[in-house]
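Weekly puzzle thread! Below is a chain. First person to post its structure in token form gets bragging rights.
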Amino acid sequence: MKENDNEKFKLEYRLSEFILFGHDRYQALSADTVESPIYQMQQWGEGKLKPQFIIDNINPDQGTAEARSWTAIDNDWKATLVSLLRAKDDAEFNQLLEAHKAFRSDNNWDKIVEIYNEKMQKNREKLGQ
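Winning reply:
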């Protein structure tokens, strides 16, 4: 419905209207950016918005090996966190945590941390710190 009758989609479901200033994923997946009621705000924000925190937008750039590794690590962490909360004892907890740390290590975590640090330094410069 979104692809074929966008107006009806917006009236019935009202999805994808509430992501202000065009979140990157929204812009990448949205076929109706020009028609969207928030397009004017997105245009206004270009060149005016800057990071407000040192940790804004520090994940590896999409399409890189590090971005794929980060996604795998993030997914593994989400599953691990649930398992940690359900652990029956400290031994199981520690085993699960160590398994996640090993998974991070096997998936290029050190390179991801380097990217985090580089991007945080750029954000510090933009923020005047």
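Puzzle host: Confirmed. Bonus trivia for everyone else. The longest helix spans residues 65-86.
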